[in-house]
Amino acid sequence: MDHQAGTIERLILSMRGIHKHFPGVHALKGVDLDLHEGEVLALLGENGAGKSTLIKILGGAHLPSEGRIELFDQEVHIHTPHIAQELGIGIIYQEFNLVPHLSARENIFLGREIRRGWVINKTEERRQANQLFDKIGIHINPETPCYKLSVAEQQIVEIAKALSQDVKILVMDEPSASLTPQEVKGLFNIIRDLQKQGISIIYISHRLDEIFEICDRILVLRDGEFVGTRDIDKVNRQEMIEMMVGRKVENEFPKHHHPIGEVRLSVEGLRRSSVVKDVSFELRSGEVLGFTGLIGAGRTETARLIFGADRKDAGTIIKDGMERNIQSPSDAIAAGICLLTEDRKGQGLVLMHSVKENFGLPNLDQFSAYHVLQPKKESSRFQSIVKKVQLKFSGQEQLAGNLSGGNQQKLVLAKWLQRNCDILIFDEPTRGIDVGAKYEIYLLINELAAQGKAIILISSELPEVIGMSDRILVMRQGEISGEIQNVQQTSQEAIMELAVH
Amino acid sequence: MTTIDKLKRAINGFIAEYGIFLVLVFLIGLFSFLTISDEEYEGTAAAEQMAQVIDHDRMQLRVVIVASTSGPDIRMAERLEELVSGRGHLVLKRINGTPPDAGKAFRELEAEGKMVDYIAATKSVGSWTIVTQAHNKFKAFEQAEIVQPSSSRFPRFLKRDNLRNIADRIAVIAILAIGMTMVIITAGIDLSVGSLIALAAVSCALFIQQFGGGAEAGPMALILCSLAAILFCGMMGFFSGALSTTFQITPFIATLAVMMIARGLAYKFSNVTTIPITNDSFDWLGKGRMAGVPVSVVVMILLYAGAYFIMHWTTLGRRIYAIGGNTEAARLSGVPVNRVLLIVYTISGLLAGLGGVITASNLAGGAATYGDYYELYTIAAVVVGGSSLMGGQGKIFGTLIGAFIIAVIQSGMNQVGVESNTQKVVFGLVIVGAILSDKYKRKEISTLQLSLLLGAVALVGLGIVFFLRSIYPDA
Prior knowledge:
The complex is a heterodimer.
Chain A: E1 11-22, E2 25-36, E3 40-44, H1 51-58, E4 66-71, E5 74-75, H2 81-86, E6 89-92, H3 104-108, E7 115-116, E8 119-120, H4 122-136, H5 151-163, E9 169-173, H6 181-196, E10 200-204, H7 208-214, E11 217-222, E12 225-231, H8 237-245, E13 263-272, E14 276-284, E15 288-293, H9 299-307, E16 314-319, E17 322-324, H10 329-334, E18 337-340, H11 344-348, H12 355-360, E19 368-369, E20 372-373, H13 375-389, H14 405-419, E21 423-427, H15 435-450, E22 454-458, H16 462-468, E23 471-476, E24 479-484, H17 492-500
Helix pairs in contact in A: 4-5, 13-14
Chain B: H1 3-17, H2 20-34, E1 36-40, H3 43-54, E2 62-67, H4 71-86, E3 90-96, H5 99-112, E4 118-121, H6 129-132, H7 134-137, E5 145-147, E6 151-155, H8 160-185, H9 193-212, H10 219-245, H11 251-270, E7 275-276, H12 284-287, E8 289-290, E9 293-294, H13 295-313, H14 315-325, H15 327-332, H16 337-363, E10 365-366, H17 374-384, H18 396-416, H19 420-441, H20 447-471
Parallel strand pairs in B: 2-3, 2-4, 4-5
Antiparallel strand pairs in B: 1-6, 7-10, 8-9
Helix pairs in contact in B: 2-18, 3-4, 8-13, 8-14, 8-16, 8-17, 8-18, 9-10, 9-11, 9-16, 10-11, 10-16, 13-14, 14-16, 17-18
């Protein structure tokens, strides 16, 4: 952090009084943002606070309704993403924009191919791609198709793509969401390098640990309003959370301990090719069993096998002392097991359908007689369940796709609460959702455990696993590599030890 | 809230949901306007109408009736004389003949020194010089007023025969479009329906001929043969479904294969001829009427009501939408995806079979050429009706409106006198237009883009017209 030593950096970007109106929504209410040369600025806020809108305005995807943007003291009008690129603004969105079957090189130069006459000059592209990877300090073969790259490598391709356009400002939206801890370290090294080269970075993340590690300053938005900005060494975690949620927060993980009952689920010798190798464990009533490990360790895959979403090669699933033959998700649901998937948009919800229809989907048998729907029953159950999960929505016909991330997760939760399963598997339930919604989901997990439900909590966020579980299983390369019984005495290091070696 | 407010809200809701309905109304209006033509009263109807005009006065009127020698004119003249004298007026002369005949009669009246109040003439006779100039030439006609049957202006397009024709023509495509809507909402497609029409028609005709007893077949035998043909198509639909679920072949390819198989089988079964159905009672389904409405249209309406119920009031319908919206989310919510898809493709096959039987009944036979291009018209109806080929969205009544739009365009162009090859071009443009207007409404394209495209299409269109004029000057 050498540049923090007191030199006043040059102001690169200044956004002043930015307003944005969408039909019926005032998404940004006069937000100011300054960015200095070589600075890493954390943009913080709950979902729906207006972070994405602000970034999209900067990237030319939205036009501001009001406000002024200055770049190097010149007023600019960013009407299209193309203009943003030309001005040296690079944005790496949370969902990557890579074409899976094109190579890293082809993706980097997509739309701006280097040509000799009519023909693409592959040699030159390859040379430049290698140069970019050198600059980043991680080498990827430019000819590898992107679908063969790991998530971290894909991210490096995205960064290379941004750098290839000579960026001055690089925006990263939740860059660490799907990276393993080592990969996050690698990413931070890259960010520090870029910083030294004078590139300014706007970093968006819900992981507060990372913010303390990599950012110089934070800027907090709440409900579309500018809350404030602080230098990182003048703020603590508690204050940061309070700025975001706008009230006092006493306890990040409100764990309650309930008496743990009899065995509800026991899994024996679960196996699927090389992804899940011989996984066995037991789960008790009232217990929250944390499942952690690196990405690709087989946690999600194990959950999918229990739920019947994928076909298992071997293994038995015994629920309440009875062996269940689970071939499909509908078998699992019938057996009282449900899975809240990590990918809410892709697997949890039908985004183009209404919140009520999404709520009803797994419960149609309860809301129908002889296959004929009973909408009144559905509506009244919907009303009472959404009240319980505190879903914020405008009406039963609102599309699920228009909910914020946290509310989408609550909707997924609502539909499974109605199902009233005995065993709930939560796969990364708080990924990408804000502090306030996280807290509410923790409370619901507590309540379910108190009712005697058995819960599996899959999470990569170690503080969350430690804070919320009664017992922790660590997975590594498709196997359970360790069990932590005494959760209160454990540390992140102890878990990492089990996950890595 | 008052009733009027409720009504307003209901109408606004309907228009928001089925904006395409306005397009249908517009098209009907357009073709009605284009086909407005003069319609003259003839024969006794003309006589009655003219008698009304003449009868306005209480006093005794003196009338001369002039008409040609055509059948309707003679009837008109006779009836008018009867009516006018029946009301106490005086018919001085009744002339059925040529202009010289009229001239002769007028001179006679002049010689007799009579005065005439009215000349009653048919439309064509009213334009003879001798009639129009009578008041100048003859003293007897100085006061005479010419009365002619008035013409009414009425759009040919809206005549009952034409409307019935549209309904007849659309019934089969609209029935196929029900199944297609369901398939498309699951994000699939069914290319086989056109061929299944041929297969059903041929098998139905063949069954009646071979097993049903031909011309002597009783109603039970006819029903059984029809059901057998429909079930056969249902099986073909099931086969498409099985290919695209269990065997993971994309629906486009699976149904393309079934389309070829079915068409080929239809040719094989019919031995490349038309198998006639000589049984008279069989044409009830295709040609019969119930209270003036074609039976096929009644069937269509019932099926639409049933389909609406399935799509919006049953678990099956909800699941169909969910699968199209997000297959994986639906599966992980416990929806038996494969089973639902099998049901949907089977329904599509069964409905195509029914369409084929109706066609066979209407045309009194089965031939392998039936239903050519019907899959494309059907898809067009569904898409024009607002369903998205991406799945998850679509409305069953939207499809019905889409089907009517297609029929209205076809029939309207026939009425206006556009020949069939031009119709195809227009038809293609209408499909593009429907999709674009939808995209425009959803703001996926800008006004500028839309007007540029329309301009380009218009320019290219004009170019093509001039090109055709220059190489085929006679056409």
